[in-house]
Amino acid sequence: MPYPQLFFRGVPAIFTDINPIPGANTANQSTYTEELQLQGSGLDQKLIYQAGVYFEWSNPLGLVGNQSPQLLTCANPDTFNCIDPLGSAFTAARGFVQEIHVGALNYTGGETAFRDRGAYAQSTYSLTDKVKITGGIRETSDKQTNTATRITNNFSVFPPFPTGAIPTCTDPTAVPTCSQHLEKDPKIKKSPKKRLNYRLIY
Description:
Blueprint: E1 19-20, E2 29-42, E3 47-60, E4 64-70, E5 73-76, E6 81-83, H1 85-93, E7 104-126, E8 132-155, E9 165-169, E10 179-184
Antiparallel strand pairs: 1-4, 2-3, 3-7, 4-7, 5-6, 7-8, 8-9, 8-10
C-alpha cells in the first residue's frame, strides 16, 4: 500500500453499501386499488358516453428504510462497528488539530401513506354521420403523508479511536428528534385537472 504511514488504519473496503435498517425491510406496504367504469349509449346511438372513478389506498405495514455505510470499514454496520480510515488519515495529516470526517453511516427510516382518487366523464355526440363532437372532464385528488427520520453517524478519528457512532441529524432543522412529518392534503392544496376537447371527423 502506498503511503502506509498516512493510511495507518487502512482504506475503506467498499465505496458504499445499502442495507435495510436494523430489524426492518426496505419496503413494507399494503395497497388496495379499485376502479369502476360505466359505459352506455342513447339517442338512437348518437350519444356514446363513459364515466369512471378510481381509488387507491396505501398504508405502511411497518417502519422501512436504509442504513448505508459510505467510505467506511464496517465489521457490522447494524451495531455501528465501523471505522473511518480516510477521516483518520486526513485528521492525522492535519496534526489531530481538527476532526475531519470522511465516511458516514447514513440512516433513513420512515413510513408513507397515500390516498389517490380520480373521476372522469366523456361523451361523443354524432351531429351527422361524418361530424362528431367529443367532450370530457377529469378531476384527481391526491393526499400523501410521510414521516422520516434521517441520521448521519460519524465515527471517531482521534486517538484512541473509541468505538460507537457519533450521531447528528442529517437535516439540522430537524434537531433534536431528527424526524420530519410531511403532508400533502388536497383540502389545503387541491389541483383538479379539467379538460374539454372537441373533435370533428369528416
